[in-house]
Design goal:
Distance between the termini: 43 Å
Largest sheet: 5 strands, antiparallel
Oligomer: single chain
Shape: globular
Mean pLDDT: 81
Strand content: 25-35%
Helix content: 10-25%
Low-confidence stretches: none
Number of strands: 12
Structural class: alpha/beta
Radius of gyration: 21 Å
Length: 203
């Protein structure tokens, strides 16, 4: 197939209203069966930041055009927020924040009731959209492997593939407002110990 040049047009909405976020249109040449990546960097305009106490979300709508004709439209929900680690402190939108967390325990109903005092969650990937909506920051897990498969996977080819998988996961899930980090395995040292491969951990 011949290469085709398309234009990407971006619009940002919050609370059902168009926001003053200017994202310039992008032209890109694509061919059938290939993936083209486009990056944009623009000021946030009048977007309201997402916080646990005010979990307001936004939506970016992307329209694909060819010669002025709309070919496709898709949207992605996201939260506008800033996360930084300074020393031993965690800063959310420039302000220090403290978490009281749980792992694979409460479901959204438990946290909404407020009796537990939990303000941070690890796991329960199926609840990501709900955590974003109710203002609960969370840690996502990038699952590794079990002890029975470790002996055959602990090699350079596996780790190269694993790094690529981690980057793809962060790219795909990073727009979730509540996602504040990823753990790179679940009980990985226990896995290594059971497989008899202690001392061969990779940084």
């Amino acid at each position: 197939d011949q290469p085709r040049q398309v234009t990407l047009r971006f619009e940002v909405f919050q609370n059902g209203k168009g926001m003053a976020v200017h994202i310039p249109e992008k032209s890109v040449t694509v061919t059938n069966g290939t993936v083209a990546e486009v990056a944009v960097d623009t000021p946030a305009g009048n977007l309201t930041p997402w916080t646990p106490k005010n979990p307001v979300l936004a939506k970016m709508v992307t329209t694909v055009l060819e010669n002025g004709k709309v070919l496709d439209t898709f949207d992605r929900r996201f939260g506008y927020r800033d996360l930084k680690v300074k020393g031993t402190g965690f800063y959310f939108n420039g302000k220090p924040i403290h978490f009281f967390g749980a792992s694979l325990g409460p479901v959204p109903r438990d946290i909404l009731e407020g009796d537990s005092g939990i303000t941070f969650q690890r796991g329960h990937d199926s609840f990501q959209d709900v955590w974003d909506e109710i203002g609960v920051p969370y840690l996502l897990s990038v699952w590794n492997n079990g002890d029975k498969t470790w002996p055959t996977l602990n090699n350079g080819k596996y780790w190269d593939s694993w790094r690529h998988f981690v980057m793809e996961t962060v790219w795909n899930e990073g727009s979730h407002a509540g996602a504040v980090g990823w753990d790179l395995s679940c009980e990985s040292f226990y896995t290594i110990y059971l497989s008899g491969k202690e001392g061969q951990e990779k940084d």
